[in-house]
Amino acid sequence: MVSKVTGIRFWNRLDSKRKGCDHSGQIQHEILHTIGFYHKHSRIDRDKNLKIYYQSIIPYRKQSFDLVLKNYSNTFGVP
Question: Which residues fall in the annotated binding site for Zn(2+)?
């Protein structure tokens, strides 16, 4: 779950008792967020590579598709 506070994203702590958090893939996913990795659909350059069909997104999930600004992320030159 993601929440916004003054334009900065904060992630909830990994809760191993929560359903879906008990396998290594989910743990790796959350660790990558912790060290600064974002989803491809949130990258500042995503519109060069992806087309987002907002009409197909559940309304309360649309914030998951907000762009992460360049000063908060680094693509390391990887497309």
Answer: 29, 33, 39
